[in-house]
Amino acid sequence: DLSVVTSTGPGGRIVEKDVLDFIESRKKAPTAQPAPKPGACAPKRVPLSEIRQVIAERMSTSWKNSPMVTINADVDCGTIKKLREDLKEAFKARELNLSYNYIFIKACAVALKEQPMLNSCLEGNEVLLYEEINIGLAVATDEALLVPVVKDVGGKNLYEIAAAGDSLIEKARTGGLSLDDVSGGTFTITNLGMFAVRDFTPIINPPQCAILGVGQMNDRPCVWCDQIVPRPMMTLSLTFDHRIVDGAQGARFLKRIKELLENPLLLLAALK
User: What angle do CA 123, 72, 245 make, to 5 degrees?
Assistant: First the structure.
C-alpha cells in the first residue's frame, strides 16, 4: 500500500529506495497484535490462585522428571457391589459412609504391603521404601483438586479407614484441611468414575512412585458362566515411575488389586 510509504523523490514522488526502506523497516518492527474487531469481546484474564500455582508447579515437575507408564485393567465389581450393600447398614450404625473409595484404599494397602516398591520414592541414586502406607485420596472442590491423606492405612480396618476418610473429605469441602492433612502421602488414588470417565492417565503426585486412577462402574456385556450377561465393570489405570518400577512389577501390582476387588473376602480380616 503506497499510501503508507514515506516519499523522498522530487515533487513528493515515491522512488525505489523508499519502497526498499519501507520493506526493511517492516522486517525490524515487532509484529503487532491485530486490534479486536468492532463488537468482539476481548478474552478475560483470570489469574491462577495460589493453590493452582502450586498444583501447576508440582504437575509440571512430575511430568518433566518422571518417565511415566500407565497400564489398565478391567475389574468385575459384582462382588464388591454386594459386599458394600451387605455392610452399608453396619457402617451407618456408626455414622460412617462405606464409600467404594475406602474399599479401594484397603485393597491398595494390602497390595502395597506385598509389593513395597510401589510405596517408595527416588532420591538421587537410592530408592526410599516408606515404612508407613499413607494413601492420598483426590477430592474435587470448587477451587481445586485437593489430596487429603489417610495415614497408616496398613494398620487400619475398613471402619477406621471410613472414619478417617469421612473426616478428611468434610474438611476438604469446608476448607478446614491442615498442612498435616495433605502431607506425607506415599500413594494416591484418584476417582473420576462419577463423571462417566471410563479410563484416563493420572499424573503421579511427586515424589510418590505411583497413582491409581478409578473409572466409572457400569454394566458391560461379559462372559459369565458360559453366557453373555451384563456385569458391573470398572477400569483401573495405574501410572508408575518407570525409573523405579518395571512394567512387570506394575502389572503384578495391578493384577493383585484386581484379585482383591473381585474376591473381597480376602479383605474381611480388615473388618475385625
Answer: 20
Q: Note if the bond before 207 is cis, omega within 30 degrees.
A: yes
Helix axes 78-93, 100-114, angle to 10 degrees: 110
Average pLDDT value for the chain: 90
Instruction: Say how far apart CA 63 and CA 206 lie, in whole Å.
Output: 9
Neighbours of 100 (CB within 10 A): 17
Say if strands 139-140 and 145-146 run parallel, antiparallel, or are unpaired.
antiparallel
Say how far apart CA 186 and CA 109 lie, in whole Å. Answer: 11
Listed in sequence order, the DSSP H helices in 16-99 are 16-28, 50-65, 78-93
Give the phi and the psi of residue 22 in degrees, each rounded to 5.
-65, -45
- Catalytic machinery residues: 242, 246
Q: Where are the beta strands (DSSP E) in 144-252?
A: 145-146, 149-150, 187-191, 210-214, 218-224, 227-241
Distance of CA 124 to the CA centre of its chain: 25
Which residue in 241, 220, 217 sits closest to 121, CA to CA? 241
Mean pLDDT calculated for residue range 67-83: 96
Half-sphere CA count of 202, side-chain side, radius 13 A: 33
Strand partners, 187: 135
The Cα–Cα gap between 111 and 108 comes to: 5
The answer to which of 1-5, 84-88, 127-131 has the lowest mean pLDDT is: 1-5
**pTM for the structure as a whole:** 0.81
